[in-house]
Write a structure and sequence with these properties.
Chain A is an alpha/beta fold. Chain A contains 9 helices and 8 strands. In chain A, α1 packs across α2, α3 packs across α4 and α7 crosses α8. Chain A starts with 9 loop residues before the first strand and ends in a 14-residue tail after the last helix. Chain B is built from 7 helices and 8 strands, in the order βαβαβαβαβββαβαα. Classes of the chains: A alpha/beta (about 280), B alpha/beta (about 250).
């Protein structure tokens, strides 16, 4: 953020909200073929929607490298139970877990992260130690919220700008907020949510992504393909190779955990919270 | 409870999802997953993953472990052992329903200490939460001890107790001694004629591997168990001959 662009673009994909599990597994493997950094499971909006952590635990058995990000609000959860679920996913996936914190913030987040940190450092009774010191934390930006939750905690911020100027403005505002929270802006990734339009060619889409990246409006993107698998597979088949060709995106995983894959350092404790 | 012919004995294998302190956690879980694949190929009916380790070693969430195993197996039932204090019933119901989705109908729950009023209320709450997931009906097993020396494990469906599984602990068995251990198991099956066995492997996945690769084939050769059936993808309900419940009224025992 407001520094020389990181070495490369980073990419995540939001899995469509479908209940057909074989379909989800197919999409996860396709995304891994395209060397996408992370997939985000859809949130449990309906009472009978799949539990994201369990869904991603299944996908951890079908994939080897791609990050697995579970949405969830800490509300209504015992922090110890919540920590254990996310730590389990991190262990099962060899360090590929992320947590997209949704809903209102609260002390449950701090407590959950404290338990994770303790499990990593000293071990916790009954809990296997996580691979990552902390899951990669995702948060959807809300410019109207007026709180500092995002800038204090998030490793990846998901934004929804209307155009390039507003994206650049918000990128700069978030950088200021991160500094004010005594964190290094270089350690936070900004991902605008991007839904590719049907008429865009692979080269046009790659042009747009490259332009936003070089203009400091984005460190990467969260791609959304609501509905069908076709556009997602087309993205892997045609757009990703274009990004490879331009040197913007790597064509192989380097075998590290999700933090390492995204170029994020381990968090260090901060006054009043887990983060620095 | 009417006794059954030994050839119809159901086999459930129980492991703890423990993490060895002297190697990466993933290696421990890979060994468990590999043993599950072996058990699946050998025709074991279901894998039970325990929520805690008797020796106090750190573990991983059973439902997550089983979801990971689901991707690698075809017919093996996937049963999570849960204690009522460990998880809110509505959360557990959603996790189990998702496991059932991920495994295409192979999920199950083993609820410990099921004889207490708290456990009955918990089970009722879990079943009530299943009401919101009409396509997923994980089977339920309950475990309880009427006395210090006697544990029962029963498969239940909509509150009606079905055949019991006899808990049996298999000590570590080097493959060279597997035939001796097989003989003991053969004697138990022929004498007790159980409906099923819940085989506990406290020594870990390696013991399950030996059971599936060596002991189980011997038991089949001796006619103690039926020949291995073709391994086809089917639900755990179908495998155990349980029908899909039409009425999800909560159970009171």
């Amino acid at each position: 953020m407001l520094h020389a662009p990181p070495g490369r673009l980073t990419l995540g994909v939001l899995l469509p909200g479908r209940l057909d599990y074989p379909f989800q597994e197919f999409l996860a493997m396709e995304l891994e073929r395209g060397r996408v950094d992370a997939l985000l499971a859809p949130g449990p909006r309906a009472p009978d929607a799949p539990d994201p952590v369990t869904l991603l635990s299944g996908l951890s058995g079908a994939t080897e490298h791609i990050g697995l990000v579970a949405p969830g609000s800490p509300s209504g959860w015992d922090p110890h139970r919540l920590a254990r679920r996310h730590v389990s996913l991190d262990v099962l996936s060899s360090g590929r877990a992320g947590w997209h914190i949704t809903g209102p913030e609260g002390t449950a987040v701090d407590e959950t992260l404290r338990l994770w940190d303790a499990a990593h450092r000293d071990g916790m009774p009954g809990m296997a130690p996580p691979v990552q010191r902390q899951p990669v934390l995702f948060r959807t930006d809300d410019p109207t919220a007026g709180d500092t939750f995002t800038t204090r905690y998030a490793d990846v911020v998901l934004t929804s700008p209307h155009d390039l100027p507003s994206a650049r403005r918000r990128y700069a505002e978030l950088a200021d907020g991160v500094r004010a929270a005594a964190r290094n802006p270089e350690h936070v990734l900004i991902w605008p949510v991007l839904t590719p339009s049907r008429g865009a060619t692979p080269a046009n889409l790659a042009d747009r992504m490259q332009h936003w990246y070089e203009e400091r409006a984005a460190d990467g993107f969260l791609l959304s393909f609501p509905g069908q698998a076709g556009p997602l597979v087309d993205f892997v088949d045609h757009v990703v190779p274009e990004l490879w060709r331009r040197g913007l995106f790597p064509n192989a995983y380097d075998g590290r955990d999700l933090r390492g894959t995204l170029g994020l350092p381990d968090p260090t404790p901060a006054p009043g919270g887990v983060h620095a | 409870m009417p006794e059954r012919h030994p050839s119809a004995v159901r086999l459930f294998a129980a492991l703890s999802a423990t993490v060895a302190p002297d190697r990466p956690a993933r290696a421990s879980l890979r060994a468990l997953a590999d043993a599950a694949v072996t058990a699946d190929r050998a025709g074991v009916d279901a894998l039970v993953v325990r929520g805690s380790d008797p020796a106090g070693r750190p573990t991983v969430e059973p439902v997550g472990v089983l979801a990971d195993v689901a991707a690698r197996t075809v017919a093996l039932g996937l049963v999570a052992e849960v204690s009522p204090a460990s998880c809110a019933p509505d959360h557990l119901a959603r996790e189990l329903a998702t496991l059932d989705l991920v495994s295409e109908g192979r999920a199950g729950l083993l609820l410990n200490d099921a004889g207490t009023p708290d456990a009955e209320a918990y089970l009722a709450a879990v079943r009530q939460s299943f009401e919101g997931t009409p396509e997923q009906h994980p089977i339920v097993l309950t475990s309880w001890s009427p006395s210090a020396a006697d544990w029962h494990v029963a498969v239940e469906d909509s509150g009606a107790p079905l055949p019991r599984l006899m808990p049996v602990t298999l000590p570590p068995t080097p493959s060279a001694r597997a035939e001796d251990s097989t003989g003991l198991l053969e004697k138990l099956i022929r004498t007790e004629r159980p409906h099923g066995l819940l085989l506990d492997f406290p020594a870990g996945p390696a013991s399950l591997e030996i059971f599936a690769r060596v002991m189980l084939p011997l038991l089949r050769e001796r006619g103690v168990l039926p020949p291995r059936a073709e391994r086809v993808r089917r639900t755990l309900r179908g495998r155990l001959g349980l029908t899909q419940p039409a009425d999800r009224a909560t159970a009171v025992r």
